Amino acid sequence: MTSRRWDRTAGVDTPVSLWSELTRRSPVLAGTAVFHLMMLLVAVGLFAFDPREVMGINVWIKPMKFMASITIYLVTVAWLIGYIERPRWSVRTIAWGISVCMVVETTMLFLQAGRGVRSHFNDASSFDATIFGIMGIGVIIDTLLMLLMLILFFRHRTKLPGTYLWGIRLGILMFLAGGIVGGWISSHGGHTVGAIDGGPGLPLLNWSVNAGDLRIAHALGLHGLQVMPIAGYLLSKRLDSRFGPVATTTMLVTFSVLYGATMLGMFLQAMAGVSIVTLWQ
Q: What is the tens place of the pLDDT at every residue in 256-270?
């Protein structure tokens, strides 16, 4: 099976052709990704002129991080969902559902940042608690839609090579695992273990340098959605003809086990109240 038969990226070698391919696969998700990229630029501009801080950092740092992450997420889902052709109602539900959830999340983040208050774990007033509750409902819906997408990648045939297909499946599984960590953070009432949220942290990322931080494992899981498909694609593209699909799939599974073990290690280290900076000492 040639790459042109299964890889629609053939010939996608410029930003214009890449954008055309992305919009062909999912115009809704592609458009929502552009919206979040624009909001990232807005947050950067506000960061430059608004000196207010929440829990020791500029109020616009969090929206900036979320806008960057959500943009990457939307582009990834738009790309992957293009491989699913049926049932169309499921594809449309995933695309529109995730888009709406992310726009609501963004609205809540900017609203709270503009008010100069926390967006997450904020129950200072009934309004703040409602905002956090709405965001939580959006995350749950988004997770269920990604679970539906995983089911579709298991149930429906595609023209993708096995290694690449398993990379997509494993990537979604990693994303869902990251969502479980996110749920744990919510039940814990914060992301820091061994100290209160908002202490000294790494530049920009703000991961705690004095205590355990559950956001590290959470981020690893969520961005496994990009790491695993890319790994599967590269292994299939470059090594299938040399070693065969069974061997390359085995390599991918081995890599995913190591990645998952790293995520679990970060989670256990955070739960022990140990900062990530101890790995460098």
A: 999 999 999 999 999
107-115 long-range CB contacts below 8 Å, 24 or more apart? 108/134, 108/135, 109/62, 109/63, 109/66, 110/39, 110/43, 110/63, 113/43, 113/46, 113/54, 113/59, 113/60, 113/62, 113/63, 114/59
Same domain, yes or no: 88 and 173: no
pTM greater than 0.70 (yes/no): yes
> Are 247 and 168 contained in the same domain?
yes
Residue among 214, 205, 133 at smallest CA distance from 181: 214
Residue after which a domain boundary falls, among 113, 131, 159: 159
Task: List the domain range (segments joined by +) for residue 136.
Answer: 1-159
pLDDT in tens, 129-180: 999 999 999 999 999 999 999 999 998 877 888 899 999 999 999 999 999 9
Domains held by the chain: number: 2
Residue 241: count of CB within 10 angstroms of its CB: 10
Does one domain contain both 130 and 235?
A: no
Nearest of 95, 108, 27, 118 to residue 67 by alpha carbon: 108
Q: Which residues pair with 192 in a beta bridge?
A: 213
